[in-house]
Specification:
Length: 86
């Protein structure tokens, strides 16, 4: 019961943060905010779909592959923002 409640809180927080970054992307047009928004939305969808399916088994490769993609988007956004413009 407590795990389900915490999972819901994480999904809600990830969705709200994704909407926060999406709002900044719409007002500035900067891809940095778009990549962050996509990363948090992927995290929220990942937790909704895979969370209840395997409640006690977090060692599934699907969990970590999707999280790797999500965190990779954040790293790419940081790299893209800081690379020298030619």
């Amino acid at each position: 019961m407590m795990n389900t409640m915490l999972l819901g809180a994480i999904v809600t927080a990830s969705s709200v943060i994704g909407l926060f970054f999406l709002r900044f992307w719409r007002s500035t047009g900067d891809r940095f905010f778009l990549f962050f928004a996509l990363s948090f939305f992927i995290d929220a969808v990942n937790r909704v779909t895979l969370g209840p399916a395997t409640p006690m088994e977090d060692n599934s490769p699907a969990y970590y592959l999707i999280r790797l993609i999500s965190y990779g988007l954040i790293l790419f956004a940081i790299y893209d923002k800081n690379r020298p413009k030619t």
